[in-house]
Design brief:
The protein is an alpha+beta fold. The chain has helices at about 20-30, 40-50, 55-65, 70-80, 120-140; strands at about 1-5, 15, 90-95, 110, 115-120. The strands form 2 sheets. It has a 3-stranded antiparallel β-sheet with strand order 2-1-3, covered by helices on one side. The chain has a two-stranded antiparallel sheet with strand order 4-5. β1 and β2 (about 15) form a beta hairpin. The radius of gyration is 20 Å and the shape is elongated. The chain starts with a strand and ends with a helix.
Length: about 140
């Protein structure tokens, strides 16, 4: 399964894992059954208020309700709706290409143009220090 990887401001990494169920609805439609008149327009309005691009939100709502998308098209719609307004360097990755060691997940960084994930050493040191303090407080009690 593919994952959508993008770079947030400051170089932090986000990974979006679209659900198989969402992809299936975008292929076959019928997510909301037979909604009342105006209901889909209301969903669009709410999506735009939440910060999503109007065109991307429209494509997503249309795909969820009426289907007709290939997996590649569905991933592109999800990318445009859920990632484009939050970061840059948006890429589709195979799950095998994502690091499996999550110890320093909050220290993962990459270029704003995309590329490989690396560990920011300063951020990793801060994570280690916070863990050490937590262990110390657990042993000696918080004061």
């Amino acid at each position: 399964m593919k994952r959508i990887v993008y770079t947030r401001p400051g170089g932090a990494v986000s990974i979006v894992c679209p659900s198989a169920r969402c992809i299936a609805w975008m292929a076959s439609g019928g997510r909301w059954g037979n909604p009342t008149r105006g209901w889909l327009d209301e969903q669009l309005r709410r999506s735009v208020e939440a910060g999503h691009n109007e065109r991307a939100a429209y494509r997503f709502i249309r795909a969820m309700q009426w289907g007709g998308c290939t997996t590649a098209e569905a991933l592109a719609i999800i990318r445009d709706r859920d990632c484009a307004h939050l970061g840059t360097g948006i890429e589709l990755w195979d799950v095998e290409d994502i690091p499996t060691d999550r110890t320093y997940r909050n220290a993962w960084r990459r270029s704003h143009n995309g590329g490989p994930i690396y560990i920011d050493e300063l951020a990793a040191m801060k994570i280690d220090e916070a863990r050490a303090w937590q262990a110390y407080e657990a042993m000696h009690g918080a004061r």
